[in-house]
């Protein structure tokens, strides 16, 4: 079953689901009817350009902002009125953690840990040392990357069933990024944690995500398995003499100066490419995830 179909059938028992989400700011619409449901145990990478609305979507999914229309649910509860039990199953790391900045990392983690029954203080101690974090310095005085890593430790130590990370690697160096991705993959594989993370870094997504969702111009244009994208989408080039045969409703369409056309096309429900791809002179090229992202977002 593909991911979009799962959105419909699994929305009810999904750890995190939204339906018909609409939101905007100052008269500009950012989300324009987004439907998304995460399958239990999946690792979903949410990609989109700067300002595409990823943080807005994440915040609305978790009930941190009230959308103008649509519903969000966390473990089947309305996101705007989560019970303490459900809050305890979820951990969220914002793009720029700012909370409790007047405490040191050790003080903050000791304090927050008291609210979680499954708090793993051994993991906290070990990871603070392994990630080389100055644990007695005030959080306000840490570098953005150190601050982000402390917040990741906070999120992981609560042993959540659902982990939501808004650009977790934004301030991390490549070594720290690898460590984080390894930890996320481990959690998903061993503990069955469901993970949603937003990123611009396609290689991070390929390394750890089982599914990808692509947010563009207020809508989710693609939501499918990471491995499935290569099978399902391709770039179709048509010379000028075939341009009139171009299929409509493609994911992207670029006109070249010589009259030729480049389109991102998708297999139909029967697994077939559009008819124009079979015409003599047409060319169909495989697309990696990064190329697919660039072709559509450009
Ligand atoms: N509180 C706000 N008031 C006004 N506009 C906002 C507010 N929050 C976000 N926006 C606008 O909404 C759009 C989407 O922002 P959002 O932060 O959700 O995007 P994003 O995909 O997470 O971006 P990035 O990848 O750069 O972090 C942007 O144009 C942003 O300027």
TrEMBL record:
It comes from Frateuria flava. The lineage of its organism: Bacteria, Pseudomonadati, Pseudomonadota, Gammaproteobacteria, Lysobacterales. This is ABC transporter ATP-binding protein. The keyword Nucleotide-binding applies. Pfam families: ABC_tran. Residues 3-242 form the ABC transporter domain. InterPro entries: AAA+_ATPase (IPR003593), ABC_transporter-like_ATP-bd (IPR003439), ABC_transporter-like_CS (IPR017871), ABC_Transporter_VariousFunc (IPR051782), P-loop_NTPase (IPR027417). Keywords: ATP-binding, Nucleotide-binding, Transport. The keyword Oxidoreductase does not apply. GO terms for molecular function: ATP binding.
């Amino acid at each position: 079953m593909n991911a979009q179909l799962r959105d419909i059938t699994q929305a009810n028992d999904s750890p995190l689901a939204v339906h018909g989400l609409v939101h905007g700011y100052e008269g500009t619409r950012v989300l324009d009817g987004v439907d998304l449901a995460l399958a239990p145990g999946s690792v979903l990478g949410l990609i989109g350009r700067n300002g595409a609305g990823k943080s807005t979507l994440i915040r609305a999914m978790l009930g941190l902002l009230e959308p103008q229309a649509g519903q969000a649910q966390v473990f089947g509860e309305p996101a705007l009125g989560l019970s303490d039990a459900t809050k305890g199953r979820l951990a969220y790391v914002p793009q720029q953690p700012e909370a409790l900045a007047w405490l040191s990392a050790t003080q903050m983690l000791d304090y927050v840990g008291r609210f979680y029954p499954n708090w793993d203080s051994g993991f906290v101690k070990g990871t603070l040392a392994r990630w080389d974090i100055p644990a007695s310095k005030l959080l306000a005085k840490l570098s953005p990357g150190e601050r982000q890593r402390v917040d990741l430790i906070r999120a992981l130590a609560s042993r959540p069933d659902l982990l939501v990370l808004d650009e977790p690697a934004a301030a991390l160096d490549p070594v720290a990024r690898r460590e984080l991705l390894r930890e996320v993959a481990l959690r998903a594989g061993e503990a069955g944690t469901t993970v949603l993370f937003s990123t611009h870094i396609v290689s991070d997504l390929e390394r750890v995500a089982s599914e990808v969702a692509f947010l563009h111009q207020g809508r989710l244009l693609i939501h499918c398995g990471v491995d499935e994208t290569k099978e399902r989408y391709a770039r179709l080039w048509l010379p000028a003499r075939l341009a009139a045969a171009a299929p409509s409703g493609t994911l992207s369409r670029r006109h070249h100066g010589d009259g030729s056309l480049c389109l991102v096309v998708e297999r139909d429900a029967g697994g077939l490419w559009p008819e124009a791809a079979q015409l003599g002179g047409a060319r169909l090229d495989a697309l990696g995830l990064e190329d697919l992202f660039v072709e559509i977002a450009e």
